[in-house]
Amino acid sequence: MTKLYSLFGGTTTDTERKVVVENQVVQMQGYSYDRYVVHKITHNEYGYHYHLINLRTLDMQQSTIIKPLSQKFGIGMYYDENNIEFMPEAEVAELYAKANEKRDSKRDAEQKENERREAVRVIGRKWLQENLPNDVQALIVARLKQDESDSQSDYFASRTQYTVILGFSKHKRDIFSEMRKHASNFKETAYLAEYNEKYEHREKYSMGAGYYLGESKYHGWIIEKCPVYTREKTIEDFAYTAGCPDGIHLGSKQADEQPTAEQVNTGNLSFEIVDYSEKAIALFGDTKEIKDLLKAMGGKFNPRLSHNAGKQAGWIFSKTKREELETILKLKSN
Hints:
Elements: E1 4-7, E2 11-14, E3 25-29, E4 35-44, E5 47-54, E6 60-63, E7 67-68, E8 76-79, H1 89-131, E9 138-147, E10 158-169, H2 176-183, E11 200-203, E12 210-214, E13 220-227, H3 231-237, H4 239-243, E14 261-266, E15 269-275, E16 280-285, H5 291-296, E17 300-307, E18 310-318, H6 322-331
Parallel strand pairs: 7-8
Antiparallel strand pairs: 1-2, 3-4, 3-8, 4-5, 5-6, 9-10, 9-13, 11-12, 12-13, 14-15, 15-16, 16-18, 17-18
C-alpha cells in the first residue's frame, strides 16, 4: 500500500517510490545547507528510509522524504534532478567508517559523563540525607544564567550554568530580604545582599520566571526559593548540586575559605589531603602511579581543582573516605 505523508503546504510525498539511490549526494535547504551522501536505503511498512552522512560533520541521520530541488518549499532535504551527483562507493564506505567511529566516541564520552555525574550525585544525596533539616520548607539557591537569546528571531531563553545552595528556609513565602540575607554566603552573589529595587523581580504569572533576585533572568547570578514538596524529590533534584565541590555555601561555612590540609609522605611519593568543601576532600600530589586504585575507591579526577590560589589537578572523594584513603596511601609505601 502506498504511503502518503503531508509535507509543507498540503503537498504529499509517495514514500513507496524510491527517489534517490545509494552514494548519491543530496543537500539540506533552508537551514544548514549541508551536503549529505546516501550510504544506505532501507524499506519497511512506512516506505523507503534514506540513511545519510553529513559530509561536513560526519553525523548520521535518516530521512523518509527527499524532494527534487525544483519542488523546493521550506526546510527539507532535496536533490538536484538536473545535476545529479554521486560519490565513489569506496569513499562512501570510508566516510561511513569515520562516522561510526565518531558516533561510538560520542557515546563513550556521554557514558563517562553520565557516570561522573552519577558519582557526584551519590555524594550529594548522602550529604543532603544527613544535613537537610527536618523542618525545611524551601531551599534558597543561586543560579548562574547564560543568555541564549536570539534577538533577530525574537527568541529569548537562558540556560543555567551553575547552581549553588545558599541556605534553608522554614517557610515557602518569597521574601526578598531573606534572599538578600543569604546572598552574602557566596562571594559571587554578595553584591545582591545590598538593597536594590531593580533586582527584585515578581513574575508569578503564566510564562513568568517567578520571584527572583538579580539583574536579569537571562544572564548573571539570580537567587530564588525552591519549595520542598517532598524530601525525597528535593534530595534527588539537588543531589548533583550538593555533590559538586563548590555547590554548598551555608552561612559562615564557606566552601571557598582556605581549607585545612594534611601532608602524607609515603616513600618517594608525596600527597596532600585537603578539606575541599563541607562534604568532600581533595587529594593532590604524585597520584599517577595509583590512579587506578584511586578510581576504584570512588575518586573522581579533575584537572582544574582550586588549590593554593590557582588551579591544580587532583582527585575528589567523599569525606567519609578520608580514613580509608590515608590508610591506602600509607600502605603504598610498604
